[in-house]
Amino acid sequence: MTSNWTKSDWRAKPRIQMPDYTDAAALAKVEEQLAAYPPLVFAGEARRLKAELGRAARGEAFLLQGGDCAESFAEFSADTIRDTFKVMLQMAVVLTYGAKVPVVKVGRMAGQFAKPRSAPTEVKDGVELPSYRGDIINDLPFTPEARIPNPDKMLQAYTQAAATLNLLRAFSTGGFADIHRVHSWTTGFAEEDKAAAYRDLSNRIADALDFMAAAGVHADEIESLETVDFYTSHEALLLEYEEALCRIDSTSGLPVAGSGHMIWIGDRTRQPDGAHVEFCRGVQNPIGLKCGPTTTPEDLKVLMNKLNPENEEGRLTLIARFGAGKVAEHLPRLIETVKAEGANVLWVCDAMHGNTVKSESGFKTRPFERVLSEVREFFACHREAGTVPGGVHFEMTGKDVTECTGGVRAVSDEDLSLRYHTACDPRLNASQSLELAFLVAEELSANREAARKAG
Ligand code: PEP
Ligand code: MN
Description:
Number of domains: 1
Number of helices: 13
Structural class: alpha/beta
Radius of gyration: 21 Å
CATH superfamily: Aldolase class I
Order of helices and strands: HHEHEEEHHHHEHEEEHEHEHEEEHEH
Bound molecules: phosphoenolpyruvate, manganese (II) ion
């Protein structure tokens, strides 16, 4: 990547959205411990993901990136991981079928613990306490003790990430993700219409597999039908943790973030001269950059040069998150900047973060209609510009939660209190996720059809 970089250079830059640990000795001890632990991912895997993202940027693959807003220590269980993984597989089947291109599957998992917050403190009944910043930093309960940042929590996050990744690797290659099991990835709480559409798709896939077998092509000899590649990603927000897990790749001699395959820079921490950009520019992993309404073409230009000076394919993913009704106002100027620079980027739509509202009953929610709208607007802008809409990024869970309103199973404002479990932002439930996948598949097959007609 870059020769004039070390993993601790970010420390000399302005840092925001990071905790001020009070016990420097305890922090140093944790950092030392983490630095001695094995990395969670390896450079070769990050490079393979980079190549796949490069294909997505050219329209030869499609990125599906999803998972929790914030992974929590309390909700950590094999079932939770399995259910999220299942829904991702279901969505990938729907997308592969619609788009006829491979789907690159990346979880917001095994490291998605640290959260930027809109305010540094929270006030309740006249009491002011530091904000909750994710389980890797402090605790959710509204008490002074819970909100003190505790460096030991990084060790628990590392352990949970390692165990999550271990299970994901087992699910990906140990038979669970075998395409012959396509019928078994249902969750039991998808809305009947979409569940039926999924069953129909599964039947068609099973038929195709039978046909291949009869024709002498044995799917059990084709590894890509029996296993999947599943990658991990998270926001690289807590730089002490990221630095401690940064390693030098023995093959290339270059630094690599060992905390996850892909890391991204959030909408609040993308200052071109800030600490987060400084850390991310030096590691060879694929990097995501959130682009919101306040991203200017000038900043984007500087950021693209800093984060991808060699204009490498698959290195930089721009994650657009403007909000429904605002995409046409903001995205075209950024697309123009990318075009003018001749920059290689992968464009992805985060249809969640621009659509958060407070419901009448007081819950932070996202109307599903707005999520769908933003996806449609994203596709429309790219159609207009002649550029590639290369993926979607969203917050979801395989559980039957009631956090986002709407969907065919119609979660109402009154329903929100029933199963509102998120540690941070509201997630799509299994049914809404599947519905979203069908919409994206429609958009992709419409694009395919248009390209075919155009010759
Ligand atoms: C997130 O992805 O959870 C997040 C905080 O997003 P953004 O930085 O786009 O607001
Ligand atoms: Mn979020």
